[in-house]
Amino acid sequence: MSQIAGSMKAWRLHAFGLENLVLENVSIPEPKSNEILIKVGAVSLNFRDKAIADGFYEPERVPNPLIPVSDAVGTIVKAGSDVKKFTAGDRVLSHLYSHWLDGAPSSNEPDFCLGTPFQGGLAEYMILEAESAVLAPSTITDEEAATLPIAALTAWFSLVTYGGLKAGDTVVLQGTGGVSIFGLQIAHALGAKVIVTTSSDDKGKKALELGADAIINYVKTPNWADEVLRLTNGVGADQLLEVVGGEGLNDSIEATRVAGRISVIGFLAGQTTNLNLMRVIFKQTLIQGIAVGHLKAFEEMNEAFDKYNIKPVIDTVYSFEQAIEAYQHLSKGAFGKIVIKVS
Ligand SMILES: NC(=O)c1ccc[n+]([C@@H]2O[C@H](COP(=O)([O-])OP(=O)(O)OC[C@H]3O[C@@H](n4cnc5c(N)ncnc54)[C@H](OP(=O)(O)O)[C@@H]3O)[C@@H](O)[C@H]2O)c1
Fold first, then answer.
1. Nearest by Cα to 15 from 43, 69, 52
2. Residue-level pLDDT at 1
3. C-alpha to C-alpha distance for 51 and 48, rounded to whole angstroms
4. Distances in Å between the alpha carbon of 28 and those of 125, 132, 170, 254?
5. Residues lining ligand 1, judged by CB closer than 6 Å?
6. Which CATH architecture has domain 152-289?
7. Which residues belong to any copy of the Enoyl reductase (ER) domain (predicted)?
8. At what angle are helices 178-189 and 295-308 packed, to 10 degrees?
């Protein structure tokens, strides 16, 4: 493989706060024997990246300086001597839980996450362990592929890997952010019925165009769980992706059927909740915490994206130099994903 040496441009965080995220020239890292060096094509932002930069996501784990952002796609330009899995020129994706390859998670998976505590991909080049990289789907662009590692895999792992989603099932998705829009696309492709809650009628229209069967404006209809029951003939949904968290988890229990599944993913409205345990008991609700997913599921998902021709929904693509604007856009809310084109 070609020799890569010299310096690269990288955004590095030197203290919490976006004002401390600085574009710098640094040395191109050298892959160890089990690693690959990729030329980064694009990265996408997740809520986690903003929370890390702002210092409220495991601040004690954040290295200084940090090249942030976990989700990246790139082309392999150099590989360590032991790498057999890929060849030069392969287009690969990063995998957040880089040591969780299959089966049940180990207790120390967060020790090996990209973008904290490992260095991330908001740079011209990035190091990945070869075993934890995954081929990108062939039918999508770099900008689209960069959206997959966290948001899409989280939705897929919740609905399909853990949830065993079947055609004809009903799924509730909260809002129109990254995870929920992927949940909509995946559930629709697999033949499920999809109900999306949103604060915006315009975003609701876009969700209908993507295949949603019903929209509930949760601002105009705060009792959105009652509306889900009405839409499901009083039964409730089979699955719900809980990205909002906080006290709303009680509404989600009401909106799902007896022995329905709630995947607890996000904490947009709070990291704690007062749960009505009697409702959980009587309804026998399955409440499953989700931490993205493992590599095997990522590979299965990528095959499904090619098979069903799923195109990730991107709100805006920013240039590499506009990284700060991209972070600021994420804070305001996006329809789908925010992407930064690197090369
Ligand atoms: N556990 C995991 O593995 C995992 C993985 C990925 C993400 N997450 C977490 O999941 C959450 C969502 O992530 P994301 O990347 O999808 O976020 P995002 O792209 O920033 O999505 C935010 C959207 O959520 C909707 N929303 C906000 N408050 C709401 C409410 N009270 N009710 C309904 N919808 C609401 C809004 O949609 P509308 O504008 O349509 O109202 C908003 O645009 C975050 O907390 C993130 O940290 C966890």
1. 52
2. 46
3. 5
4. 7, 20, 48, 52
5. 46-48, 150-151, 154, 174-180, 197-200, 203, 218, 243-244, 265-269, 290-292, 333-334
6. 3-Layer(aba) Sandwich (3.40)
7. 17-340
8. 60
Check whether 2 has a pLDDT greater than 60: no
Whether 152-289 and 7-147+312-341 are alike in CATH topology: the answer is no
Please give the structure tokens belonging to residue 31. Answer: 């892959």
The residue ranges of every structural domain in the chain are 7-147+312-341, 152-289
What's the pLDDT tens digit per position in 228-275? 999 999 999 999 999 999 999 999 999 999 999 999 999 999 889 999
Which residue has its alpha carbon closest to ligand 1 atom 19? 177
Averaged pLDDT score across all residues of the chain: 96
Where helices occur in the chain by DSSP H, the ranges are: 47-54, 142-145, 153-156, 178-189, 201-209, 224-231, 249-255, 277-283, 295-308, 323-332
What is the whole-number distance in angstroms between the Cα of residue 315 and the centre of ligand 1? Answer: 14
* Amino acid sitting at position 105: P
Question: Which of 148, 217, 243 should be mutated for ligand 1, with most atoms under 8 A from CB?
Answer: 243
Q: What pLDDT score does 3 carry?
A: 55
Q: What is the best residue among 179, 203, 221, 314 to mutate for testing ligand 1's pocket, by most ligand atoms within 8 Å of CB?
A: 179
Distances (CA, A) of 252 to 96, 195, 258: 27, 13, 12
Identify which of 268, 328, 338 to mutate to test ligand 1's pocket (most ligand atoms within 8 A of the CB).
268
Q: In CATH, what is the architecture of 7-147+312-341?
A: Alpha-Beta Complex (3.90)
User: Looking at the predicted structure, is the pLDDT value of residue 65 above 60?
Assistant: yes
Distances (CA, A) of 319 to 43, 65, 337, 343: 10, 22, 14, 9
d(CA 10, CA 163): 39
**Residue 156 alpha carbon to ligand 1 centre in Å:** 15
